[in-house]
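Sample pair:
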Amino acid sequence: MILADLFSIILRLTELAFAAIVAGLNGDYLSSVHNADSWQLGRQIYTEVVAGVSIFFAIIWLFPFSGSFVHWPADFAISAAWFAAFGLLVDWLDGNCG
């Protein structure tokens, strides 16, 4: 059981780190864009919200108060939100990455 708790903590820390990276990069882009309304920036705003929710739940569930893998339905929903966010950003890039 100790190994499962340790594995859960490691996964939560990586979730927290990657969500913070996405939130920072996306927040920097949002702050640098001028003269754009929220409709044009909807994909980036959605990605920022998903990153914020992911950071919130990663901090809440970082320490295993209950069973290690009890929160899997919420983890599945957050994963689906990340998949949608990255899909929206890839569609927005339209093959012009880099």
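The radius of gyration is 16 Å.
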